[in-house]
Amino acid sequence: MEYVNLNNRVKMPILGYGVYQVSNDECERCVLDAIDVGYRAIDTAQAYGNEEAVGSAIAKCGLPREELFLTTKIWISNGGQEKAAASIDESLKKLGTDYIDLMLIHQPFNDYYGTYRAMEDAYKAGKLRAIGVSNFYPDRFIDLCKFVEIKPAVNQIETHVFQQQKTAHSYLEKYGVQHESWGPFAEGRKDFFGNLVLNQIGEKYGKSAAQTALRFLIQSNVVVIPKSTHKERMAQNLDVFDFVLNAGDMAAISALDEGESLFFSHYDPDTVEMLTGLAR
Ligand SMILES: NC(=O)c1ccc[n+]([C@@H]2O[C@H](COP(=O)([O-])OP(=O)(O)OC[C@H]3O[C@@H](n4cnc5c(N)ncnc54)[C@H](OP(=O)(O)O)[C@@H]3O)[C@@H](O)[C@H]2O)c1
Fold it and tell me: Which residue's alpha carbon is nearest to atom 25 within ligand 1?
């Protein structure tokens, strides 16, 4: 495993396992499988409804807590200092742990400054080892960086070969904040796994399109958290540290960037209505 050093010197695995859309029933088995094949970082969220299942898997896996890196996220409905503080304690309880390695604000909506202050307090109290945000586009990200006491360590944003977030990445670098990808395979959209460029480049190294795409992000200094419910795919997605894409490969994959979301834009009022509507 390779690691990145966050801006508060906490070490974070560059590759972890995401559990979005993994049902509560299946989640414990999936996390145990992921840990068994070698994952040490798990990404969940209050909104995924599976923090308890992640908690029971980490209790059963037999590894010391300090060998694992747990990320969860505060949902919009828990926005504001008081509610967010209570929700941090609730997440700790559900995950069955005394501390969370990385807590993110899931979406830049509701009173996210209050939410951020609650995270700063919990960070100072030792409940959170690092704090950050998710889905903060450059405008809101810069504003937040300017007015908080503890700089965010991470921004987790949609990032894959078709939406590489080149502008956002440059601002994250400028402010010393780690870029983390969600949806590194774009959830399979646009025939992701059949993509000709990814398959042709991967073939040279005996790797799949999925592995080539993850390697591209890792070599671009982006943390990745691919999701799969299949153990053999979990293992495949982790097996990306024994090859290096050359400059020509990187340029060819870089050219796949369309610079637009394959999901939704937070600048679109309909998206904002949809997401904030989910929090009611
Ligand atoms: N912060 C946010 O707002 C946000 C939003 C979305 C996601 N996330 C995080 O990012 C993580 C990853 O994103 P995601 O789950 O949306 O999607 P993703 O990782 O881009 O794609 C997952 C899809 O790819 C398939 N897959 C995985 N490995 C494969 C392989 N080697 N070959 C072929 N198919 C493969 C999976 O199918 P099977 O499961 O059937 O194998 C699943 O359909 C999430 O789990 C979550 O932790 C965060």
Answer: 228
What residue owns the CA closest to ligand 1's atom 5? 182
Please work out whether the CB of residue 135 comes within 6 Å of at least one atom of ligand 1: yes
State whether the beta carbon of 134 lies less than 6 angstroms from ligand 1: yes
Q: Is 3 a catalytic residue?
A: no
Tokens of 253: 């994959």
Ligand 1 mean position, distance from CA 161 (Å):
14
The residue with tokens 């695995």 is 13
CA 215 centroid distance within chain: 16
Tell me the pTM: 0.98
Residues 252 and 17: their CA atoms lie apart, in Å, by 27
Q: 186 in ligand 1 pocket by Cβ < 6 Å?
A: yes
CA distances from 260 to 3, 73, 164 (A): 28, 24, 9
pLDDT tens track of the chain, all 280 residues? 999 999 999 999 999 999 999 988 899 999 999 999 999 999 999 999 999 999 999 999 999 999 999 999 999 999 999 999 999 999 999 999 999 999 999 999 999 999 999 999 999 999 999 999 999 999 999 999 999 999 999 999 999 999 999 999 999 999 999 999 999 999 999 999 999 999 999 999 999 999 999 999 999 999 999 999 999 999 999 999 999 999 999 999 999 999 999 999 999 999 999 999 988 6
Question: How far is the centre of ligand 1, averaged over its atoms, from the C-alpha of 233 (Å)?
Answer: 11
Q: How, if at all, do strands 11-13 and 3-5 pair? A: antiparallel
Pocket flag, ligand 1, residue 236 (CB < 6 Å)? yes
How far, in Å, is the centroid of ligand 1 from the Cα of 188? 8
